[in-house]
Write a structure and sequence with these properties.
- The chain is mainly alpha-helical.
- It has a domain of 108 residues.
- The chain has 6 helices and no strands.
- Helix 2 crosses helix 4 and helix 3 runs antiparallel to helix 4.
- It is elongated.
Length: 161
């Protein structure tokens, strides 16, 4: 297996699982059945773009911004095609970009800090908490800006009927 086919395999596998997660959240949010395929595609392509950009050395924050912007653009296009509100397509796709690992590590660090009896260990734990909390906040901000920017640039001024 060459390097290019290995990358395609990894990104394709990542896209499949992200699409399934987006589809699951779309079903959970009770979106119309006719829009489920677009929800799958939006989540899969947005997460695949983030993974591909991260593979080529871009930071997770910037890669998440690009993936969220793609989801936002696809959400606007899907909304016009299926005559449904854009959040029907963007929210399930964006959930696949949420930084669960960094948020988990932040909470775990807070619990460790509360349980620490040694003052020397508190500084290192506090550094880890700060790092993970900052990463979480930046990634969440990238998701919000990435999803909102296409809507602000190209969104409809009147509701879809």
């Amino acid at each position: 297996m060459s390097i290019d086919s290995a990358i395609v395999w990894l990104v394709g596998k990542d896209a499949l699982w992200a699409g399934i997660a987006a589809l699951g959240f779309a079903i959970l949010f009770n979106v119309p059945v006719r829009t489920l395929a677009a929800c799958f595609v939006n989540g899969a392509l947005g997460h695949a773009l983030r993974s591909l950009l991260m593979h080529y050395g871009l930071g997770i924050e910037a890669a998440t911004l690009a993936g969220a912007a793609l989801i936002g653009f696809l959400g606007i296009a899907s909304a016009r095609l299926w005559k449904a509100p854009a959040p029907v397509f963007t929210i399930p796709g964006a959930i696949t970009l949420v930084p669960g690992t960094f948020a988990f590590r932040t909470m775990l660090g807070l619990l460790q800090l509360a349980a620490a009896t040694n003052n020397d260990a508190g500084g290192e734990i506090l550094w880890d908490i700060s790092f993970n909390a900052t990463k979480t906040a930046l990634i969440l901000a990238a998701i919000a800006v990435g999803i909102a920017t296409p809507t602000l640039l190209f969104g409809r001024r009147k509701p879809v009927v």
